[in-house]
């Protein structure tokens, strides 16, 4: 699994750089290998050959453990993901009965690892970036948990395999608001644009990893670019039906195709949106996503109670017909909420006063 993830991350770095270059009307990596596909390996060799320095004032144990603490949780999430029907259901702990709680618990370690990197560096830019990161990651864990809670209400299980089986209609269709909340919170948890205040190159140099070089920086680099792959796998499992698809392709192929679509959307975000200020990021978490997450849980819970009242459940799961009705209703509600937010919350808080000409502008006009 580790080897597969490392190779997938190497390919993803090339794909991301090529795609962002296309968005920005550039060529991207094109020197090393065909279409620049060997560029990730050249980058790894360059980092390995560089000197691995540690600042004199750094807290050396914390400074050294931070990259490992950031990479390990990212890898651990993948062991509970059910990739497809062609893999034994008990492989990689994909049948763990508390799989979703495992993911929530493991992702919470990221904020600690980023703070360790900044604190251990004893660098003002690194500490500032890590403090921003800790505040942002802790804040966005709450909306992410709210999005997961709505999934648990519909599936009735904490196991990832049961969540996939309960999606006779994909949850992205049944509760689009929950998908939006989870997707936005997951993007912030990865510290990707527009939520990349942890690094913020134009403000903090390189943020929490300013003092890192050599193999330690390579590990941080690996964890950063592995995060979108892991996020795509979790989103595919929770909202896109996992490995479900038409019979003419194996389940694992469908899973990979859905992951590719999610990754492309994340790259689209990074290529087009500007970075938000830290106050905007925190306000979006607490004023927007938190409220939407609570409203989505209330909506899904009411619909689930109505399903039980009218006998629209089968072995604890909702019937397909009822889920289709929920999809239509929830999409209408989601669009209405977006329009209301755009007209109310999206208005400018302050109206710009009409400019008045200066008295000096009329000097000499109509005078003696």
Features of this protein?
globular, two-stranded antiparallel ribbon, mainly alpha
Topology:
Layout: H1 2-23, H2 39-49, H3 60-77, H4 99-107, H5 109-121, H6 124-155, H7 160-165, H8 171-174, H9 176-189, H10 201-204, H11 214-239, H12 251-272, H13 278-309, E1 313-314, E2 317-318, H14 320-344
Helix pairs in contact: 1-11, 1-12, 2-11, 3-4, 3-5, 3-11, 5-6, 6-9, 6-13, 9-11, 9-13, 11-12
Structure description:
- It is a single chain.
- The protein is mostly helical and 368 residues long.
- It has one domain.
- It contains 14 helices and 2 strands.
- The chain has a two-stranded antiparallel ribbon with strand order 1-2.
- A hairpin with a 2-residue loop joins strand 1 and strand 2.
- The longest helix has 32 residues.
């Amino acid at each position: 699994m580790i080897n597969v993830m490392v190779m997938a991350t190497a390919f993803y770095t090339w794909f991301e750089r090529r795609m962002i270059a296309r968005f920005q009307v550039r060529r991207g990596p094109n020197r090393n290998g065909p279409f620049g596909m060997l560029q990730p390996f050249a980058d790894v060799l360059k980092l390995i050959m560089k000197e691995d320095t540690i600042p004199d004032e750094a807290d050396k144990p914390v400074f050294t453990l931070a990259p490992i603490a950031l990479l390990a949780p990212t890898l651990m999430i993948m062991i509970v993901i059910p990739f497809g029907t062609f893999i034994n259901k008990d492989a990689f702990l994909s049948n763990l009965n508390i799989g979703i709680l495992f993911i929530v618990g493991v992702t919470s370690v990221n904020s600690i690892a980023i703070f360790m990197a900044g604190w251990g560096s004893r660098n003002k830019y690194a500490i500032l970036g890590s403090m921003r990161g800790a505040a942002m990651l802790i804040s966005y864990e709450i909306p992410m948990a709210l999005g997961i809670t709505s999934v648990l209400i519909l599936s009735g299980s904490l196991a990832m395999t049961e969540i996939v089986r309960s999606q006779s209609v994909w949850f992205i269709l049944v509760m689009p608001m929950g998908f939006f909340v989870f997707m936005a919170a997951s993007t912030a948890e990865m510290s990707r644009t527009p939520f990349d205040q942890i690094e913020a190159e134009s403000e903090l140099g390189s943020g929490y990893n300013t003092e890192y070089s050599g193999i330690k920086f390579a590990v941080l680099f690996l964890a950063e670019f592995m995060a979108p792959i892991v996020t795509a796998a979790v989103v595919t499992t929770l909202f896109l039906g996992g490995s479900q698809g038409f019979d003419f392709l194996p389940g694992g192929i469908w899973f990979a195709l859905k992951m590719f679509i999610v990754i492309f959307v994340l790259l689209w975000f990074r290529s087009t949106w500007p970075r938000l200020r830290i106050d905007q990021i925190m306000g979006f978490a607490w004023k927007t996503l938190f409220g939407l997450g609570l409203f989505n849980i209330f909506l899904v819970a009411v619909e689930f109670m109505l399903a039980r009242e009218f006998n629209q459940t089968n072995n604890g799961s909702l019937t397909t017909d009822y889920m289709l009705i929920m999809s239509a209703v929830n999409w209408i509600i989601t669009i209405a909420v977006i329009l209301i937010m755009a007209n109310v919350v999206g208005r400018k808080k302050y109206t710009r006063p009409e400019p008045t000409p200066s008295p000096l502008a009329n000097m000499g006009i109509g005078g003696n």
